[in-house]
Structures are given as C-alpha cells and as structure tokens.
C-alpha cells in the first residue's frame, strides 16, 4: 500500500521496495498493520494454542529445534524454550548494521508475520510495531548468519531485545535491551509456543539488506549512464551507435534502455561526433586519390565507448531480475512451520531458506562489476594521449612532466576493479554443513548481500574519478560545446573542485563526488532537464 499521511500500512502482500526504503530511512513514518489482517493473525494464534494444549507434535511448538529436533518438550516449558532458542542463535559478530537498515529488517519481518501464517500473538506483534515506531534499534552485528533457517542471528538480536535482553540503541545511545525498551515506553514480550521461532525463522534480514542493495545499485546504474555520456562526449565519441533503430534489431531491454538514455544525454552536444558527417569528411580525403591516408579521427570508437549499451545492459537486467525476486520474497511467509487456518492444519517446510536471495545478490554483484570495468577503460582513454582524440597526457596541460596531472587517480580505479573481482566469488555456492548436519545446506544470503553492497560502493568510487576526468576534459575542449546534460554535470563537479591547473591531493574531492553520486543528486538534476532515465525498457 502507498504511504499515506506519513503512515505505512502493511498487509503482507503489497509492500514495495520503494516503500520499504522510504519507511526504513524516514523515522517520522509510522508503521501499522492493516485492520483486515488482525482477525487471521488472531485465528492463527488460536490454532497454535489449541494444538499446544492438545500436545500435538509440531516443530518449535513442543519440540526443540535444529540439531535437537528429536527432543520433545513439556508445555509448561514453552516460555523457557522460546527464550533459550533466541538466546542460542544470537551469535553475530563484527561491526553493527546501521540503524536504518535494522529498521528495514524489522519492517520486512512485520510484513511477513502479518500475513497470518506464523502463529505470533497479536500482542507481541503490536509490541514489534511499537519497537519500530518508537525507534528502538537492536544492535545487529553484521557477520555470522548462515542465511538458512533464515537470518537466525540477526533476527535473534531483535527478538532478544523484545523480551528485555541483549543491547539496543535508543536516542543515539547503546544500552541493555530492557533499558532501551523501558526508555521507549515499550512493553516486553512474553513468548509462548512457536513465537520465538516465528520471530527469528525467516529471511527478513537478508531481504532488508538486499532491497537496500538493489535500490543503491539502480541509483549507481543511472549515474553510470550519466557519467558515461559525459565521458563519451568529452572523448569525442560517436552518437550513432546508440541510435535505438540499431538496438531494435537486437532487442534486450537493458541494452535498449541504455541506448535510449545515452541518446538523450548526448543530444545537443557539439563534441560528440555524428559519424555520417565524419564519413563525408573522410570521403573527401579518399576522393583525392593520393594513396593510403591516415585519418585524424578513427572511423569507429573503441568498445568501451561504442559497446556501452551492450556491456551495461545485461547489468541492468540482472538488477531488474533481483528486484523481482526480492519483491516476491518481501511479500511472503518465510518461516516454518506455516499455520493454515483455512484448512485447520500446519505444514513443515523450508521457506526460511535464503537461496533465492543469495543467488540474486551474487548475480547482481557480479553484474555490477562490469560498470567499474567499463568506467576504468574510459578513464584509461582519458589518460592516454594516443587514445583521447587530442587531449594532453593524463589531462595535464602545462608544465607536463613536472606535473603528473590525473595519472594517480587511475591507480585507485584499477585497484578497485581488481578488488571487486575478488568479491565476485559467489557466496550462494559456498554451503558448509552445520548444526550436527541438520542445517546441511545453507545459503549465506547475508554474506552475498554484504559483498554486493561493497561492490556497488567500490563502483561509485570508480565513477567519481571518471566524472573528475570528464570535467577536466570538458574544460580543455570548451564547456560551451557540451550537451545540456554535460553542462549540468560539469557545473556540479566544479561545485566540488575547480579545474586542476596544478597538482594536488584530491582524495577528499573524490570522496565528496562519490557521496553526491550515492545521494542521487546528479540523477535528480539531469532527469529534471532531460526526463526519466530507464533501467530497462518495457516494450509497448
């Protein structure tokens, strides 16, 4: 459901990635559950209580879990067991996730629980919402999740705070969980049969992270097209290879979208070359019949310019596919067992398994590496006077040799391309058996998400230097010749650093440009001028 009156209403079926990102980031947005969902939530819990009283043998209700699944438990110990279950899996280590990401985990979990298949009590689910709305942020270290049986460790950090243990941040201060709940005025949960399992046995941690990665990747993709166009025109590349009439003959939706974007971004440029006009110029040379001649400008561009749509398009399609997968997962019941009130039955299952997310994140991460590769290749053309159509070596005009120009920036970009390649090793195929062979095939979905996010971040660093190079080249070529989009980008860069007519340390400038890329500022400015940029093209 759309966010209305600063409230996000969850129904378990219609939450979008955009809504999750907005509500996760904007702490003023209140999160509620649709009134229509509460009867099924109550009916589901009633069934669990009925079966618990009848002592029907159900996993997590009156059995232990994991490698102790064969241990049958008496009803009077259900609270002890549910709390011990949460305590035992809360074993994350490392630097904690940021508060807004924790909030996304919690919203995603609430959206799954409110579908009414998990058996949590209405009171406890309302407490969960109170934690979200009163800004109690459980501390969740980022390493240690298997991504199978869900994100047990990350979600265990949340659940343990809910009954007054572990640690949470409230009003910017980390404190014991019970103190944080009391300070926020939120009642503590009392867990009965299956409730601890319902809180931790799902994919909501990796879902929240993956949705964030997808959102950040889409922003990077749009920035990549903008910066590619800026680089192409300042390298005096050709516009004709991006003609959509060409791309209709080999239609891939990501490729076609990139060609459309580049055509719009390069419209109005007096630097980008029309190859039809170039052909006429070279025809005049040929007609002189003076033997073999060498043209000042080559007839075709290198692949890193000409094949940008073909190279970047598959990355866009990988991101679009990941978004489809995550949208399904976000609006799913992903714990075990599920309670079906309509059939008065329960079914043990493996919905907690994170393989769809892990695989999608691995594919997204691998695909995003290509953006850095092609960006670094265009950077190399800026550096090399033999490949830049008249630009000075390393974009250094004046005192060359004493000055080194922008040579060193490519050290960083080439290094990060290599680092990204090391991050391309898939997490989704690294299964290692655990829990006395009970969890004998695992997804490592949270690892895949963390790796993909690092790849996106590194790519933004690479793009920041390409942007610097294009702005430097624009000053050398003449900014009056730029396209409208190019002029916007040149002016934006010059807000961060001036034209470099002397050598200096520009690390802080690259960091600021990278932060501005991540903020979406450049996309907003350019789209306001030329219209929306596409991730994938949808055929009419």
From TrEMBL:
Coiled coil: none annotated. Transmembrane segments: none annotated. It comes from the Bacteria. CDD domains: PAL-HAL. GO terms for molecular function: ammonia-lyase activity. Keywords: Lyase. InterPro entries: Aromatic_Lyase, Fumarase/histidase_N, L-Aspartase-like. The keyword Metal-binding does not apply. PANTHER family: HISTIDINE AMMONIA-LYASE. This is Histidine ammonia-lyase. It comes from Desulfobacula phenolica.
């Amino acid at each position: 459901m759309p966010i209305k009156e600063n409230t996000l209403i969850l129904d378990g079926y219609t939450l979008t990635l955009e809504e999750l990102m907005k509500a996760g980031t904007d702490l003023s947005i209140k999160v509620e559950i649709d009134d229509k969902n509460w009867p099924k939530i109550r009916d589901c819990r009633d069934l669990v209580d009925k079966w618990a009283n009848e002592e029907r043998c159900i996993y997590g209700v009156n059995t232990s879990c994991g490698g102790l699944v064969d241990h049958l438990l008496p009803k009077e110990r259900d609270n002890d067991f549910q709390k011990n279950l949460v305590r035992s899996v809360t074993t994350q280590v490392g630097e904690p996730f940021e508060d807004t990401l924790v909030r996304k985990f919690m919203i995603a979990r609430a959206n799954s629980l409110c579908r009414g298949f998990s058996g949590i009590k209405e009171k406890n689910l309302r407490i969960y919402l109170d934690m979200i709305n009163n800004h109690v942020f459980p501390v969740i270290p980022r390493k240690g999740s298997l991504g199978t049986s869900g994100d047990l460790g990350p979600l265990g950090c949340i659940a343990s705070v809910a009954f007054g243990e572990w640690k949470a941040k409230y009003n910017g201060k980390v404190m014991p969980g019970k103190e944080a709940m009391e300070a926020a005025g939120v009642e503590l949960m009392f867990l009965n049969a299956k409730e601890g399992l319902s809180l931790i046995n799902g994919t909501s941690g990796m879902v929240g992270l993956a949705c964030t990665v997808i959102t950040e990747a889409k922003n990077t993709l749009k920035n990549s097209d903008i910066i590619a166009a800026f680089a192409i025109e300042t390298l005096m590349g050709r516009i004709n290879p991006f003609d959509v009439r060409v791309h209709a003959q080999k239609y891939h939706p990501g490729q076609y979208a990139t060609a459309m974007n580049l055509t719009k971004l390069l419209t109005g440029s007096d630097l980008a070359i029309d190859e039809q006009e170039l052909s006429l110029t070279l025809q005049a040379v040929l007609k002189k019949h003076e033997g073999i001649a060498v043209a000042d400008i080559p007839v075709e561009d290198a692949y890193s310019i000409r094949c940008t749509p073909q190279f970047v398009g598959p990355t866009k399609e990988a991101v679009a596919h990941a978004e489809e997968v995550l949208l399904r997962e976000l609006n799913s019941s992903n714990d075990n067992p599920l309670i079906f009130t309509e059939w008065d039955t329960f079914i043990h299952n493996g919905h907690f398994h994170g393989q769809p997310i892990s695989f999608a994140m691995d594919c997204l991460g691998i695909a995003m590496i290509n953006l850095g590769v092609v960006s670094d290749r265009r950077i190399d053309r800026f550096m090399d006077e033999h490949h830049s159509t008249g630009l000075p070596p390393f974009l250094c005009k004046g005192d060359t040799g004493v000055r080194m120009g922008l040579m060193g920036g490519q050290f960083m970009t080439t290094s990060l391309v290599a680092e990204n390649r090391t991050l391309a090793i898939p997490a989704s195929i690294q299964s290692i058996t655990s829990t006395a062979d009970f969890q004998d095939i695992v997804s490592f979905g949270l690892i895949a998400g963390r790796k993909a996010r690092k790849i996106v971040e590194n790519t933004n660093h690479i793009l920041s230097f390409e942007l610097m190079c294009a702005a430097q080249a624009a000053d050398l070529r003449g900014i009056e010749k730029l396209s409208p989009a190019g002029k916007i980008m040149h002016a934006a860069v010059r807000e961060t650093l001036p034209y470099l007519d002397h050598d200096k340390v520009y690390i802080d400038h690259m960091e600021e440009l990278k932060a501005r890329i991540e903020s979406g500022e450049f996309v907003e400015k350019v789209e306001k001028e030329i219209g929306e940029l596409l991730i994938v093209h949808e055929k009419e």
